[in-house]
Specification:
alpha/beta; 254 residues; Rossmann fold; four-stranded antiparallel β-sheet; six-stranded mixed β-sheet
């Protein structure tokens, strides 16, 4: 198995606060690797460091063997590392198709000044429709993003991420703010996407995590206390004591 991502002795300090504390973990190519932990564990900080939005204080982030810890966010995107955010960030007045076409245009290195091109050029709209189809939104292509339901907006963000042609998807709470039906739809969508993409998933919905993850890493105060399969994590006494609780041994069970 090929390691797509290797995190080696990673640290992130905010003054005296250790947001990431000597973190070591790896993500195998083709797996969905979930990162869980209590609030304040450093999960979003980790995603920000992996994407390049936040600089690491020290340590290495190796992407297919290359240390990318000092690369900018755009440089990492060009290498295939793409993230979504906890809070939706869309051009609400533009259609779903235009939102994704703009991402295709940016990936191709074209200027956003030529918005008309993104809306009408098949070089951009073709791949954009393909990305919308992958997330189940092709039938909503002409709807303004601001008029989409919350769950559909999260699906649209995934389509925008897919338009960047990722080798690694970093998903930060893609089910945040969703109801049960919307969450189930996104779980089904991620189950399909994990067949084609390597994914790092940060998510509070434990049913979703245990249903989707090939492996899970557990963070507490920026440090990884355990990594393993869902079954191994369910049974780990340190994890249950620190985070999941004694009643969580059956979390995510059928």
């Amino acid at each position: 198995m090929v390691a797509a991502l290797e995190i080696v002795h990673l640290h992130k300090m905010f003054g005296a606060l250790k947001a990431t504390d000597d973190l070591n973990l790896d993500v195998v190519e083709g797996e969905l690797h979930a990162v869980i932990g209590p609030n304040g564990a450093g999960k979003t900080t980790l995603i920000s460091q992996l994407s390049g939005q936040a600089a690491a204080t020290s340590g290495e982030i190796r992407f297919f063997g290359e240390n990318i810890a000092r690369l900018s966010m755009p440089q990492r995107v060009r290498r295939g590392i793409v993230r979504s955010f906890q809070i939706t960030s869309l051009c609400r007045e533009f259609s779903a198709l235009t939102n994704v076409a703009l991402a295709v245009q940016a990936r191709a290195g074209h200027s956003f000044r030529f918005l008309r091109n993104a809306q009408n050029d098949s070089r951009f709209t073709g791949p954009a429709m393909n990305a919308l189809d992958q997330v189940g939104l092709a039938h909503r292509a002409d709807v303004e993003a601001g008029h989409l339901a919350h769950g559909e907006q999260r699906q649209l963000e995934l389509a925008i991420a897919l338009a960047a042609e990722p080798k690694l998807l970093l998903l930060d709470e893609p089910m945040a703010g969703m109801g049960a039906d919307e969450s189930h739809r996104v779980v089904d969508l991620l189950r399909e996407l994990k067949r084609r993409y390597t994914i790092v998933l940060v998510e509070h919905d434990m049913d979703a995590v245990f249903a989707l993850a090939d492996r899970i890493s557990v963070l507490v105060y920026g440090h990884c206390i355990a990594t393993g399969t869902p079954e191994e994590i369910r049974r780990d006494p340190a994890v249950r004591n620190a985070y999941l609780g004694e009643d969580a041994a059956d979390a995510g069970s059928p």
